[in-house]
Design goal:
Strand content: 25-35%
Mean pLDDT: 91
CATH superfamily of the largest domain: Phytochelatin synthase, N-terminal domain
CATH architecture of the largest domain: Alpha-Beta Complex
Helix content: 10-25%
Radius of gyration: 16 Å
Number of domains: 2
Shape: globular
Number of helices: 4
Structural class: alpha+beta
Length: 162
């Protein structure tokens, strides 16, 4: 499989960033905006044109991504995490990262669920932002995917082999 650089992936997923990002990103195709668009900066994967599955298919990546999944209770979430992590599926959390910011405003973010500890009911999240592994309770996770923070409901994706 070819290695794809992050700018190409961003373009394929409809990346939109503030104009000040022009100093960092060099490829044609990334959208630089003056003001925060409806839905915020970042990717536009909810649109079919920029879907992750379309990206996987275009680049012959043998993976399947689920639709965005939602949970309302800790019990539902606990069972979902245990079942999917035990099965070897990758579980991606789409959330508002305010739960990891002390007094700062959060924003939409994606992270990989690394593990779930049933004894403590804590989720370990792998993230590209330091610290690279963070812990959160099921209650915090449910809050971070709810629409209570910014009006946008978020959730989980399952990624598995095709």
């Amino acid at each position: 499989m070819n290695i794809l650089d992050q700018e190409l992936i961003g373009i394929e997923l409809g990346l939109r960033i503030p104009k000040k990002g022009k100093k960092i990103f060099k490829r044609v195709g990334i959208k630089f905006l003056d003001k925060d668009p409806v839905g915020g900066f970042g990717t536009q994967i909810e649109k079919e044109k920029y879907s992750i599955q379309k990206f996987f298919d275009k680049y012959s990546i043998p993976l399947i991504i689920s639709k965005l999944l939602f949970f309302e209770t800790e019990h539902e979430l606990r069972n979902f995490l245990k079942d999917n992590l035990k099965s070897g599926n990758d579980v991606i959390l789409r959330y508002n990262n305010v739960i990891f910011k002390s007094g700062e405003k959060g924003h939409g973010h994606f992270s990989v669920i690394s593990e779930y500890d049933d004894k403590t009911a804590e989720v370990v999240i792998g993230d590209p932002n330091p610290p690279f592994f963070k812990k959160a309770s099921l209650k915090q996770i449910l809050y971070s995917i709810s629409n209570k923070l910014d009006g946008q409901r978020r959730g989980f994706y399952i990624i598995c082999r095709n």
